[in-house]
Structure formats: structure tokens, C-alpha cells
Design a protein that fits this description.
Elements (H helix, E strand, L loop, with lengths): L1 E3 L4 H17 L5 E5 L13 E6 L7 H10 L3 E6 L5 H4 L2 E6 L9 H8 L15 H11 L4 E5 L11 H11 L10 E4 L10 H6 L5 E3 L5 H9 L3 E5 L2 H8 L4 E5 L4 H4 L6 E5 L4 H5 L18 H18 L1
Parallel strand pairs: 1-2, 1-4, 2-3, 4-5, 6-7, 6-9, 7-8, 9-10, 10-11
Helix pairs in contact: 1-4, 1-9, 5-8, 6-12
Length: 315
């Protein structure tokens, strides 16, 4: 199978359920994955993986010509979620090509319909190797962990770091639902400065610095957490795919389309919806401040407590 998927981590995670579907249906399936460099580590431990082809964007769309040359051979299955011409041009017994985008559907449902599976749609999942899990065990050790994803790819989608700090303090206080838990902070290296208020306000002896860790190790660390809370991001989707109780925080992004997927997930949004934000005459995507102030710490604490209670009953 040739599987052509996204560059962005979140979108790539949401597509993993399709890979899982074909692996379950065709034992021994050999898989080539084509994706952008940021998402590539997500697929390193996929069963039956033959190779990962990195799609490095080039002028005049030459990256597609490069992919065509690298992958020209007969395929049993071609799945093209980038809706490129490649999916049609390569010889294949069966091909599944992404059609027109439908913003009325959750992305997982939309992707499932590409391969004709929507009852239920294929749930995202991640595969982790032993080395990543061993590294995570050394970093995390035993005991409860609250995982936070306080950054985002745009500051407008980022809940203020000071509120994350207060939320973490309340959830891990002696009377909190995760009393005494350590707090793991996840972000890209370039986002470290944004999180300085967290480093300054939370007890150093209970902080786990997971910023800039390799993506496979990030997944293994998330897998060991008792709860993940974060902005709409790839980290949020990774945590949900790993069956970690996951609370996503939404403002100027599409909650119905990108809320975390799974039975142990919840989403909280600002009083203003995505449409309220982007249709506002004053909306500017270059905005330099958070648009997430409508979510209070009290709201997030209550949503986290409700989700933990749900997880206890589920377990």
C-alpha cells in the first residue's frame, strides 16, 4: 500500500485510523508512507512499514513529480489524502482518493468515507517502539502525571500560559483530582519562551520538561499521562489517539471538525465560536494576542474533573 498523507502532525494523526483499518484487513500488508517531514516520525513504528518518503515542497510542484518517480510501481492499494494526481497516475488494483473538503464533518468521519468506512469511522491510533517507551519510562517514572500542551501554531489559538499554570496548580493540589501529580510540559523548542510563566510558577520538583523531545518519545510520554489538556494542536490529537483522557481547548478553530476523537475526550470552547471569530469585521489572522480569554480557569477545572470522572467509570 502507498499511503499519501499530511505534513501537519494533527492531520496526519487523524489519518492513522485508515492505516490501522488496512493493516487489520490485510495481515502482512507492506506499507510505504508519503508525508511531510514534521509528521514522518509518527509512522516510524507502523507494522509492515517498508519506507517513508518525505514530501519536501519544491517550486512548480516538482515534489509531486519526485514522488511519482520514487513510487512508480504496481500497487495493491493507493490511498491519496492529498488529492494529488499521483493517486490516479500510479498503477493500482484499488485506489482511494480524497475528494472535496466537507467542513460539516469531523475530519475522522470525512477520512473514513474516503475508504467507504463510516460506521464507525476508523479511529486514529499511534504505534510506539520499545526504545521510545523505555526513554519515556526513564523520564516519567511512576505516579500520576498531568500532561499539558500549552502552545499552538498561532498565538490566537493559545490559552494564556498563566491560566495553564493556575489550572495545573488547582488540579494537582492536595485537594485536587490529581493530587501531587507531576506536570509534563510539551511543546516545540521554538515555543519554550511562550511557556516561561509555567516554568516560573509551578514547583520545579514536580515539572517534567518534555519540550523538544523526539516525536516518538513524545507519544510514549503522553501514553503514560493520566490526563492531557491542551490547545487545538497535533499534541492534542496524539494524546487522544493514545487513549489518554484528553481535554482540548478551542477558540478561533473549528471545534466540530477538529475536536479530539475518542471515548475519553472532551472539548471546551470560548463563548465565541470559530465562525464568530473569523466573521467578525475586526478579525485579523495576524493577531498578536490570545483569542482564548473566554475560557476561564473555573471552566477548565470543571471540564477536567468531569473527564477524569468519566475515565474512572470507563476503566
Amino acid at each position: 500500500m502507498l499511503f499519501i498523507t499530511s505534513t501537519r502532525i494533527g492531520d496526519a494523526v487523524l489519518s492513522t485510523g485508515l492505516i490501522d483499518h488496512f493493516i487489520r484487513r490485510h495481515p502482512g500488508l507492506r506499507i510505504t508512507i508519503a508525508c511531510g517531514a514534521p509528521a514522518a516520525p509518527l509512522f516510524a513504528a507502523v507494522p509492515g512499514l517498508e519506507r517513508i518518503h518525505i514530501i519536501a515542497k519544491r517550486r512548480h510542484h516538482l515534489h509531486w513529480l519526485e514522488l511519482y518517480g520514487a513510487c512508480f510501481r504496481p500497487w495493491s492499494i493507493v490511498v491519496d489524502l492529498r488529492a494529488s494526481a499521483i493517486g490516479w497516475l500510479l498503477p493500482a488494483r484499488r485506489r482511494y482518493i480524497m475528494g472535496r473538503r466537507n467542513d460539516d464533518l469531523h475530519r475522522v468521519i470525512e477520512l473514513g468515507r474516503v475508504i467507504g468506512v463510516d460506521n464507525p469511522p476508523p479511529a486514529p491510533r499511534l504505534w510506539l517502539d520499545a526504545a521510545a517507551r523505555d526513554a519515556a519510562a526513564r523520564m516519567m517514572k511512576e505516579g500520576p502525571v498531568l500532561a499539558l500542551g500549552p502552545a499552538a501554531n498561532w498565538i490566537g489559538k493559545q490559552w494564556p500560559a498563566e491560566r495553564f499554570a493556575e489550572l495545573a496548580a488547582r488540579l494537582t493540589a492536595a485537594t485536587g483530582p490529581l493530587a501531587g501529580a507531576r506536570i509534563a510540559l510539551f511543546a516545540a523548542p521554538a515555543e519554550r519562551a511562550q511557556l516561561q510563566p509555567l516554568f516560573e510558577s509551578l514547583p520545579a520538583e514536580r515539572l517534567i520538561d518534555a519540550i523538544g523531545r523526539p516525536l516518538g518519545q513524545v507519544g510514549a510520554m503522553l501514553e503514560r499521562a493520566d490526563l492531557f489538556i491542551g490547545n487545538d494542536s497535533g499534541l492534542m490529537h496524539m494524546a487522544a489517539a493514545l487513549q489518554v483522557p484528553t481535554l482540548g481547548l478551542f477558540g478561533p478553530s473549528q471545534i466540530d471538525r477538529y475536536r479530539p476523537w475518542g471515548p475519553l475526550t472532551a472539548a471546551l470552547r470560548t463563548p465565541k465560536s470559530f465562525e464568530d471569530h473569523v466573521l467578525d469585521p475586526t478579525y485579523d489572522h495576524r493577531h498578536t494576542g490570545s483569542l482564548m480569554d473566554g475560557i476561564s480557569v473555573d471552566m477548565a477545572v470543571q471540564a477536567a474533573e468531569d473527564l477524569l470522572e468519566k475515565a474512572r467509570h470507563h476503566g
